[in-house]
Amino acid sequence: MPTEPAVVFVHGMRTSSSIWVPQLAHLHGAGYDAVAVDLPAHGERRDERFTLPRAFEVIDEAIGSFGAHRRVALVGLSLGGYTTLAYAAREASLAQAGVLGHPGRLTGVVAAACCSDPKGKPVALFRDVARVTVTGATAAGQAAHSATTRWRAALAGRGTRAGGSDVAALLGGAAAVGPYRPGWEVVTDALTHLAGRSSVADLRATRVPVWLVNGSRDHLRLEEQRHLAAAYQGALVVVPGAGHDVNSDAPEAFNRVLIRALHDFSRP
């Protein structure tokens, strides 16, 4: 039985599994088993609506594809990062309750570009931007400007500067996603599900190592030290020069970090 974990990649908002092509090629070349999933409302699952329970089912299916007893690591970016942290917290809860299933198979999580706790006003603001965007471009532009102004004010209150790309970064990365790009309604659905959760609370609940990976230019790494402190066994890596789409902005550096994390997860 292989000692290294198999890997499931989970993409960000309004992208697809295609963003992980460089990482899949790198891991396959290094002898790892790895797959990338499409979340509901994205890629091959474009006809579904995003819900967190359905996203968990997608991850369950991917983990099951490696067999009944194979240990698995999760790698998530942005929305995928928040989703994998929530999944890991759920697995820990099920394991504590003695529920049969996947608990015990998860060996670690690499959570990238998700070190701003989605619980609170900023997520609600962006959700409102997305909701208005669906209804009309002019109103959307006004709402986006208003929400961005309020977002920057919120960050200023935390002593953090925000750039003009923050809305685009949270609502959907710039990485290539192939011929299909989900509409704005998926943002409303996804942020509605995230708004009631805390990524910090999810980290506190996990019982596996978590590597937090951020690009140095990502304006959404607001609370990375708070997230690191909450992790059961945590590590923080900041990739110089990379933005929110850290795996696409600096694929070679991200791949090196990924291999290091998987080696860490393989330890007894």
TrEMBL record:
<keyword id="KW-0378">Hydrolase</keyword>
<feature type="domain" description="AB hydrolase-1">
    <location>
        <begin position="7"/>
        <end position="256"/>
    </location>
</feature>
<dbReference type="GO" id="GO:0016787">
    <property type="term" value="F:hydrolase activity"/>
</dbReference>
<protein>
    <submittedName>
        <fullName>Alpha/beta hydrolase fold protein</fullName>
    </submittedName>
</protein>
<dbReference type="GO" id="GO:0016020">
    <property type="term" value="C:membrane"/>
</dbReference>
<dbReference type="InterPro" id="IPR029058">
    <property type="entry name" value="AB_hydrolase_fold"/>
</dbReference>
<dbReference type="Pfam" id="PF12697">
    <property type="entry name" value="Abhydrolase_6"/>
</dbReference>
<dbReference type="InterPro" id="IPR000073">
    <property type="entry name" value="AB_hydrolase_1"/>
</dbReference>
<dbReference type="InterPro" id="IPR050266">
    <property type="entry name" value="AB_hydrolase_sf"/>
</dbReference>
